[in-house]
Amino acid sequence: MRCFLKRNGMEAIIETLGAELLSLKREGTECMWNRNPQFWGNASLVLFPFIGRNFKDTYICNGREFQMGIHGFAFSSEFTILEQKEDSLRLSLKENEKTLKSYPFCFELGINYVLEEDGLSVSFEVINDSDGLLPFGLGFHPGFRLEKPLEQYRILFPEMKAPQEIGIVTRCMLNGKNTALDLPDRCISLNRKLFTKSARIFTGMGNTAILQRKECDLLSITYDGFENIVLWQTLNSDADFICIEGWNGLPGRYEHIEDIYKAPGRTVLEAKQNREYRVRIRFS
Questions:
Q1: Could you report the per-residue pLDDT of 162-182, keeping only the tens digit for each?
Q2: Distance CA 279, CA 72 (A)
């Protein structure tokens, strides 16, 4: 089901399947990717309870092996509408018979979309409804529309401190080879060579990324509570979009089947506790 939000010349469309942000417009101008299936058939994804891939799509929980595909199951799950107003939408996903087969935990993932004066706010709440620990990862994976050529764009990280790139193999697993970055202008310029082998995972970039075209700001995206910023585009393609993602967590290690409680970057909530995160997309 599609839900339509409006406020002061801005419009958003959210699909309850995956809580996916399909469209975000200001004065009729679309900023989200058009979901061309030749390159990538989505406009945004919610990543939960895993980010990236586990080796052999397998992990261990309390001595048992479980199967989980790339980026978990939230993006392919139907969310429940809790409340909808003209400019806001509250959605929820809870455990069910299907999720318990691959993720044996009781949880609630709440997502709140709100159109504000200058953009969109997306808040996430992870609730541990069980009597034990809840291990998880959470990510937001929006794709923003570009005009060719890609080389006219760059991304500024105004809060950058001691940046590093986290090494991954092509199938989105960690390879253990992190690299310090030298970015004196605090920018990454976009070009086709960036996306020949994998997504690019960065830490130490701060929480804000500003998409610029010919050094003019187009929009900013701020990830409150997220540890890493990730850039991705369909590998070795001519697609005209860029994903600027926030990840709280990391993929599993290549050739290593992870224990879910000990995996790199995993957040673990105590019983009956919750954790909140927020994303702000602002038009310039």
A1: 999 999 998 899 999 999 999
A2: 20
Token pair belonging to 84:
């909808």
- Do residues 195 and 233 make contact, with C-beta atoms less than 8 angstroms apart? yes
Strands 208-213 and 80-84: unpaired
Q: Is 193 left (phi over 0), alpha (psi -120 to 50) or beta?
A: alpha
All residues at 6 or more sequence positions from 14 whose CB lies less than 8 Å from its CB, including other chains: 2, 3, 5, 20, 21, 22, 89, 91, 113
Given the candidates 2.70.98.10, 3.40.50.1220, 1.20.120.80, 1.20.1250.20, the CATH classification of the domain at 2-283 is: 2.70.98.10
Quick: pLDDT tens for 136-166.
999 999 999 999 999 999 999 999 999 999 9
Distance CA 71, CA 165 (A): 20
Residues in the chain with pLDDT values less than 70:
none
Nearest CA to 190 out of 229, 156, 143 is that of 156
Helix-then-strand count for the chain, H and E: 1, 25
Question: What confidence score (pLDDT) does residue 261 get?
Answer: 96
